[in-house]
Design goal:
- This protein has a domain of 88 residues.
- Helices cover 65% and strands 0% of the residues.
- The chain has 158 residues and is an all-alpha fold.
- The N and C termini lie far apart (70 Å).
- Helix 1 runs antiparallel to helix 2, helix 3 packs antiparallel against helix 4 and helix 3 crosses helix 5.
């Protein structure tokens, strides 16, 4: 006997109303409608918006992690006397996050390449703020290649 899961109970009939009133219940309901193939009942407008938001979030996370790695590589290179295990751990953790993002979504690699220079610009300013060395201390172009930035064994020496 084939059992069909029941849709989560809600007090509303409109998917867009549910989206506004109880986001988690909207997600559960949407997932169940998809599983059951009840595509005409989907709240397509909000579903499309959520999927697009997920894509933007992936890009934003990649950028953020790249900026952190680049900033810490700069600090590591230009403040050798303050190097710490914490900096190395931060570099390792954020490289891992980038690697995982690229493994899970290889189509993000062109985006990584596209924003590398912009992320370096931001990382350079962040490193200047954190080190109080001044932006002129750091080169205007990244001294690290994208490959070095992702290399788990690479650490810049002074």
């Amino acid at each position: 006997m084939l059992m069909t899961a029941q849709l989560p109970q809600s007090q509303t009939t409109s998917g867009s109303d549910l989206y506004e009133q109880d986001f988690y219940l909207w997600i559960q309901t949407t997932a169940e409608l998809l599983k059951q193939g009840r595509l005409t009942e989907l709240d397509l407008e909000n579903l499309i918006d959520e999927i697009e938001t997920m894509g933007r979030s992936e890009k934003k996370a990649l950028r953020s992690n790249l900026e952190v790695v680049l900033m810490h590589l700069l600090k590591y290179k230009y403040q050798a006397e303050k190097r710490s295990g914490s900096w190395r751990a931060t570099i390792r953790e954020h490289r891992k996050r980038i690697r995982q993002a690229l493994e899970e979504s290889p189509s993000l690699k062109p985006y990584f390449d596209e924003v590398f220079g912009l992320c370096y610009d931001d990382a350079r300013l962040l490193a200047a703020d954190e080190t109080e060395l001044g932006a002129a201390t750091f080169p205007e172009q990244s001294p690290f290649t994208p490959e070095q930035t992702l290399d788990p064994d690479f650490l810049p020496e002074s």
